[in-house]
Amino acid sequence: MELRHLRYFVVVAEEQHFTRAAQRLHMAQPPLSQAIRQLEAELGVELLHRSTRHVGLTDAGRAYLAQAREILASVDTAADRARRVAAGLVGHLTISCVGSATYSLLPELSRRLDDALPGVDFSFRGELLAPDQARALGEGAIDIALTRPPITDLGVTTHLLRRDRLVVALPELHPLAARTQVTSRALRGVDLIVHSAGRRSVMYDVVLQVLRDAGVEPRIRHEVGETSTLITLVAGGLGAAIVPESVRALQLAGVVYRPLVRPAAHLDLVLAHRTDRHDAHLSRAVQVIRDATAATAH
Protein backbone atom coordinates (compact mmCIF):
# COMPACT_ATOMS: atom_id res chain seq x y z
CA MET A 1 0.00 0.00 0.00
CA GLU A 2 1.34 3.41 -0.94
CA LEU A 3 1.16 6.24 1.56
CA ARG A 4 -0.05 8.62 -1.12
CA HIS A 5 -3.11 6.41 -1.67
CA LEU A 6 -3.99 6.89 1.98
CA ARG A 7 -3.82 10.65 1.52
CA TYR A 8 -5.95 10.44 -1.62
CA PHE A 9 -8.60 8.40 0.19
CA VAL A 10 -8.76 10.85 3.12
CA VAL A 11 -9.23 13.83 0.79
CA VAL A 12 -11.95 12.05 -1.22
CA ALA A 13 -13.72 11.07 2.00
CA GLU A 14 -13.58 14.66 3.26
CA GLU A 15 -14.77 16.20 -0.01
CA GLN A 16 -17.27 13.41 -0.81
CA HIS A 17 -16.70 14.23 -4.46
CA PHE A 18 -13.96 13.09 -6.85
CA THR A 19 -13.81 16.30 -8.86
CA ARG A 20 -13.39 18.53 -5.82
CA ALA A 21 -10.89 16.08 -4.31
CA ALA A 22 -8.87 16.04 -7.52
CA GLN A 23 -8.78 19.85 -7.58
CA ARG A 24 -7.64 19.94 -3.97
CA LEU A 25 -4.89 17.42 -4.75
CA HIS A 26 -3.90 19.25 -7.94
CA MET A 27 -4.32 16.14 -10.08
CA ALA A 28 -6.65 14.82 -12.77
CA GLN A 29 -9.74 12.90 -11.69
CA PRO A 30 -9.12 9.60 -13.58
CA PRO A 31 -5.76 8.87 -11.86
CA LEU A 32 -7.34 9.70 -8.50
CA SER A 33 -10.26 7.32 -9.09
CA GLN A 34 -7.84 4.63 -10.26
CA ALA A 35 -5.71 5.06 -7.11
CA ILE A 36 -8.74 4.59 -4.85
CA ARG A 37 -9.78 1.48 -6.81
CA GLN A 38 -6.28 0.11 -6.39
CA LEU A 39 -6.43 0.77 -2.63
CA GLU A 40 -9.78 -1.06 -2.36
CA ALA A 41 -8.38 -3.98 -4.35
CA GLU A 42 -5.37 -4.26 -2.05
CA LEU A 43 -7.60 -4.19 1.03
CA GLY A 44 -10.24 -6.46 -0.45
CA VAL A 45 -13.09 -4.20 0.73
CA GLU A 46 -15.21 -1.43 -0.73
CA LEU A 47 -14.46 1.87 0.97
CA LEU A 48 -16.76 4.20 -1.01
CA HIS A 49 -20.29 4.26 -2.37
CA ARG A 50 -20.16 6.01 -5.76
CA SER A 51 -22.84 7.79 -7.76
CA THR A 52 -22.69 10.35 -10.56
CA ARG A 53 -23.06 13.21 -8.08
CA HIS A 54 -21.98 11.90 -4.71
CA VAL A 55 -19.35 9.77 -2.97
CA GLY A 56 -20.12 8.28 0.43
CA LEU A 57 -18.30 6.08 2.90
CA THR A 58 -19.19 2.46 3.49
CA ASP A 59 -19.02 1.12 7.06
CA ALA A 60 -15.58 -0.26 6.22
CA GLY A 61 -14.63 3.13 4.76
CA ARG A 62 -15.59 4.95 7.96
CA ALA A 63 -13.52 2.57 10.04
CA TYR A 64 -10.59 2.85 7.64
CA LEU A 65 -10.78 6.65 7.54
CA ALA A 66 -10.15 6.94 11.29
CA GLN A 67 -7.10 4.70 11.09
CA ALA A 68 -5.83 6.38 7.93
CA ARG A 69 -5.91 9.79 9.62
CA GLU A 70 -3.96 8.42 12.60
CA ILE A 71 -1.35 6.88 10.31
CA LEU A 72 -0.91 10.09 8.33
CA ALA A 73 -0.67 12.17 11.50
CA SER A 74 1.98 9.80 12.85
CA VAL A 75 3.96 10.00 9.62
CA ASP A 76 3.77 13.80 9.64
CA THR A 77 4.94 13.87 13.26
CA ALA A 78 7.85 11.56 12.48
CA ALA A 79 8.83 13.67 9.48
CA ASP A 80 8.73 16.85 11.55
CA ARG A 81 10.91 15.30 14.25
CA ALA A 82 13.38 14.05 11.64
CA ARG A 83 13.66 17.55 10.21
CA ARG A 84 14.15 19.02 13.70
CA VAL A 85 16.84 16.45 14.52
CA ALA A 86 18.61 17.20 11.23
CA ALA A 87 18.49 20.91 12.06
CA GLY A 88 19.96 20.32 15.53
CA LEU A 89 16.83 21.51 17.33
CA VAL A 90 16.19 18.40 19.44
CA GLY A 91 18.35 15.87 21.27
CA HIS A 92 20.19 15.40 24.55
CA LEU A 93 23.64 16.64 25.59
CA THR A 94 25.65 16.30 28.78
CA ILE A 95 28.10 19.14 29.42
CA SER A 96 30.80 19.06 32.08
CA CYS A 97 32.92 21.86 33.53
CA VAL A 98 36.11 22.16 35.51
CA GLY A 99 35.61 23.95 38.81
CA SER A 100 36.40 27.51 37.68
CA ALA A 101 34.10 27.23 34.63
CA THR A 102 31.33 25.86 36.84
CA TYR A 103 31.10 29.15 38.70
CA SER A 104 32.16 31.67 36.08
CA LEU A 105 30.51 30.30 32.92
CA LEU A 106 27.86 27.72 33.69
CA PRO A 107 25.13 30.09 34.99
CA GLU A 108 25.23 32.20 31.81
CA LEU A 109 25.81 29.28 29.46
CA SER A 110 22.89 27.27 30.80
CA ARG A 111 20.58 30.23 30.15
CA ARG A 112 21.91 30.88 26.65
CA LEU A 113 21.69 27.22 25.67
CA ASP A 114 18.12 26.99 26.93
CA ASP A 115 17.17 30.13 24.99
CA ALA A 116 18.90 29.08 21.76
CA LEU A 117 18.01 25.37 21.81
CA PRO A 118 14.79 24.90 23.81
CA GLY A 119 14.17 21.50 22.22
CA VAL A 120 17.50 20.08 23.40
CA ASP A 121 17.61 18.43 26.81
CA PHE A 122 20.79 19.51 28.62
CA SER A 123 22.44 17.88 31.64
CA PHE A 124 25.30 19.63 33.44
CA ARG A 125 28.10 18.17 35.55
CA GLY A 126 30.24 20.66 37.41
CA GLU A 127 33.45 20.44 39.39
CA LEU A 128 35.07 17.69 37.30
CA LEU A 129 38.84 17.54 37.04
CA ALA A 130 40.29 17.53 33.52
CA PRO A 131 41.47 13.87 33.62
CA ASP A 132 38.00 12.76 34.70
CA GLN A 133 36.51 14.76 31.85
CA ALA A 134 38.87 13.20 29.33
CA ARG A 135 37.88 9.72 30.48
CA ALA A 136 34.16 10.60 30.42
CA LEU A 137 34.46 11.95 26.86
CA GLY A 138 36.12 8.74 25.74
CA GLU A 139 33.44 6.61 27.39
CA GLY A 140 30.60 8.71 25.99
CA ALA A 141 29.41 9.68 29.47
CA ILE A 142 29.62 13.37 28.52
CA ASP A 143 29.28 15.10 25.15
CA ILE A 144 31.05 18.44 25.73
CA ALA A 145 33.76 19.32 28.23
CA LEU A 146 34.85 22.78 29.32
CA THR A 147 38.28 21.70 30.41
CA ARG A 148 42.00 22.46 30.71
CA PRO A 149 44.80 21.40 28.38
CA PRO A 150 46.73 19.32 27.67
CA ILE A 151 44.39 17.11 25.64
CA THR A 152 46.36 14.07 24.52
CA ASP A 153 43.51 12.09 22.90
CA LEU A 154 43.83 12.48 19.12
CA GLY A 155 40.12 11.64 18.81
CA VAL A 156 39.11 14.86 20.58
CA THR A 157 38.60 18.26 18.96
CA THR A 158 39.23 21.38 21.05
CA HIS A 159 38.34 25.06 20.73
CA LEU A 160 40.07 27.71 22.82
CA LEU A 161 37.46 29.61 24.82
CA ARG A 162 39.61 31.97 26.87
CA ARG A 163 42.93 32.43 28.63
CA ASP A 164 42.63 32.82 32.40
CA ARG A 165 45.29 34.69 34.28
CA LEU A 166 46.33 33.14 37.61
CA VAL A 167 45.59 34.85 40.91
CA VAL A 168 46.29 34.08 44.55
CA ALA A 169 43.35 33.40 46.86
CA LEU A 170 44.22 34.48 50.41
CA PRO A 171 42.52 34.54 53.80
CA GLU A 172 41.52 38.19 54.29
CA LEU A 173 43.71 38.46 57.42
CA HIS A 174 46.77 36.93 55.77
CA PRO A 175 49.81 39.28 55.67
CA LEU A 176 49.93 39.06 51.85
CA ALA A 177 46.32 40.23 51.61
CA ALA A 178 47.49 43.78 52.26
CA ARG A 179 49.35 43.79 48.93
CA THR A 180 47.77 44.80 45.61
CA GLN A 181 49.57 41.92 43.87
CA VAL A 182 51.61 38.90 44.92
CA THR A 183 54.82 37.61 43.41
CA SER A 184 55.56 33.92 43.17
CA ARG A 185 58.59 34.37 45.45
CA ALA A 186 56.38 35.90 48.13
CA LEU A 187 54.72 32.48 48.46
CA ARG A 188 57.93 30.90 49.80
CA GLY A 189 57.07 29.29 53.13
CA VAL A 190 53.32 30.02 52.77
CA ASP A 191 50.94 27.14 53.47
CA LEU A 192 49.23 26.21 50.21
CA ILE A 193 45.99 24.46 49.38
CA VAL A 194 46.05 22.72 45.99
CA HIS A 195 43.95 20.44 43.85
CA SER A 196 44.69 16.78 44.38
CA ALA A 197 47.82 15.30 42.83
CA GLY A 198 46.39 11.82 43.31
CA ARG A 199 43.57 12.64 40.90
CA ARG A 200 46.06 14.10 38.38
CA SER A 201 44.71 17.64 38.55
CA VAL A 202 46.02 19.98 35.84
CA MET A 203 46.10 22.80 38.41
CA TYR A 204 48.38 20.80 40.70
CA ASP A 205 51.04 20.60 37.99
CA VAL A 206 50.54 24.26 37.01
CA VAL A 207 51.00 25.51 40.58
CA LEU A 208 54.16 23.47 41.12
CA GLN A 209 55.62 24.60 37.81
CA VAL A 210 54.89 28.32 38.40
CA LEU A 211 56.49 28.28 41.84
CA ARG A 212 59.47 26.15 40.94
CA ASP A 213 60.17 28.37 37.91
CA ALA A 214 60.49 31.20 40.46
CA GLY A 215 62.81 29.13 42.63
CA VAL A 216 60.14 28.43 45.25
CA GLU A 217 59.60 24.97 46.68
CA PRO A 218 55.83 24.72 47.36
CA ARG A 219 54.73 24.16 50.95
CA ILE A 220 51.61 22.09 50.40
CA ARG A 221 49.42 21.59 53.45
CA HIS A 222 46.10 20.41 51.97
CA GLU A 223 44.99 18.70 48.75
CA VAL A 224 41.34 18.82 47.71
CA GLY A 225 39.23 17.57 44.81
CA GLU A 226 36.86 20.48 44.25
CA THR A 227 37.43 24.19 43.72
CA SER A 228 34.58 25.04 46.10
CA THR A 229 36.30 23.06 48.88
CA LEU A 230 39.63 24.70 48.10
CA ILE A 231 38.21 28.23 48.45
CA THR A 232 36.28 27.23 51.56
CA LEU A 233 39.53 26.15 53.23
CA VAL A 234 41.17 29.44 52.20
CA ALA A 235 38.24 31.28 53.81
CA GLY A 236 38.84 29.21 56.95
CA GLY A 237 42.41 30.52 57.12
CA LEU A 238 44.08 27.18 56.41
CA GLY A 239 46.28 28.47 53.60
CA ALA A 240 46.55 30.29 50.29
CA ALA A 241 45.82 28.96 46.81
CA ILE A 242 46.82 29.75 43.24
CA VAL A 243 43.72 29.61 41.06
CA PRO A 244 42.44 30.84 37.68
CA GLU A 245 41.08 34.38 37.90
CA SER A 246 37.62 33.10 36.94
CA VAL A 247 37.36 31.53 40.42
CA ARG A 248 36.61 35.07 41.62
CA ALA A 249 33.03 34.27 40.62
CA LEU A 250 32.92 32.03 43.71
CA GLN A 251 32.60 34.77 46.31
CA LEU A 252 33.10 33.64 49.90
CA ALA A 253 33.42 35.84 52.98
CA GLY A 254 36.96 35.78 54.32
CA VAL A 255 38.68 35.37 50.92
CA VAL A 256 40.50 38.00 48.87
CA TYR A 257 42.10 37.60 45.44
CA ARG A 258 45.34 39.20 44.31
CA PRO A 259 47.00 39.02 40.85
CA LEU A 260 49.97 36.66 40.64
CA VAL A 261 52.95 38.46 39.11
CA ARG A 262 56.65 37.90 38.42
CA PRO A 263 56.14 35.70 36.62
CA ALA A 264 52.58 36.31 35.47
CA ALA A 265 50.98 33.06 34.39
CA HIS A 266 47.95 32.01 32.40
CA LEU A 267 45.90 28.88 31.95
CA ASP A 268 43.73 28.08 28.91
CA LEU A 269 40.12 26.97 29.05
CA VAL A 270 39.02 24.91 26.07
CA LEU A 271 35.86 23.28 24.81
CA ALA A 272 36.38 19.62 23.91
CA HIS A 273 34.23 17.03 22.15
CA ARG A 274 34.77 13.81 20.26
CA THR A 275 35.97 14.44 16.71
CA ASP A 276 33.77 11.66 15.34
CA ARG A 277 30.61 13.29 16.68
CA HIS A 278 28.70 15.02 13.88
CA ASP A 279 25.34 15.50 15.61
CA ALA A 280 23.69 18.72 14.47
CA HIS A 281 22.50 19.61 17.97
CA LEU A 282 26.04 19.16 19.33
CA SER A 283 27.44 21.46 16.63
CA ARG A 284 24.81 24.09 17.42
CA ALA A 285 25.53 23.87 21.16
CA VAL A 286 29.28 24.22 20.54
CA GLN A 287 28.66 27.39 18.53
CA VAL A 288 26.37 28.84 21.23
CA ILE A 289 29.06 28.24 23.88
CA ARG A 290 31.81 29.73 21.72
CA ASP A 291 29.71 32.80 20.90
CA ALA A 292 28.70 33.26 24.54
CA THR A 293 32.31 32.99 25.73
CA ALA A 294 33.50 35.46 23.10
CA ALA A 295 30.77 37.91 24.14
CA THR A 296 31.68 37.75 27.83
CA ALA A 297 35.36 38.21 27.02
CA HIS A 298 34.76 41.70 25.59
Description:
With 298 residues, the protein is α/β, with parallel strands linked by helices. The chain folds into three domains: 3-86, Arc Repressor Mutant, subunit A; 91-162 and 268-296, D-Maltodextrin-Binding Protein, domain 2; 164-266, 3-Layer(aba) Sandwich (D-Maltodextrin-Binding Protein, domain 2), CATH 3.40.190.10. Helix content is 43%, strand content 24%. Helix 1 crosses helix 2, helix 1 (3-15) packs across helix 4 (59-86) and helix 6 packs across helix 10 (280-296).
The SS-based structural class is alpha/beta
Specify the overall morphology.
Answer: rod-shaped
Q: Which blocks of ≥5 consecutive residues have pLDDT under 50?
A: none
Strand coverage percent: 15-25%
In which range does the helix fraction lie?
Answer: 40-55%
Please, what is the CATH homologous superfamily of the largest domain? Periplasmic binding protein-like II
- Mean pLDDT over the residues: 89
Name of the CATH first level of the largest domain: Alpha Beta
Helix count from the secondary structure assignment = 10
User: Looking at CATH, which topology of the largest domain would you report?
Assistant: D-Maltodextrin-Binding Protein, domain 2
Quickly count the domains: 3
Order of helices and strands: HHHEEHEHHEHEEEEHEHEEEH
Task: Tell me what the CATH architecture of the largest domain is.
Answer: 3-Layer(aba) Sandwich
Domain HTH lysR-type: 1-58
Organism: Flexivirga aerilata
InterPro entries: LysR_HTH_N, LysR_subst-bd, WH-like_DNA-bd_sf, WH_DNA-bd_sf
Protein name: LysR family transcriptional regulator
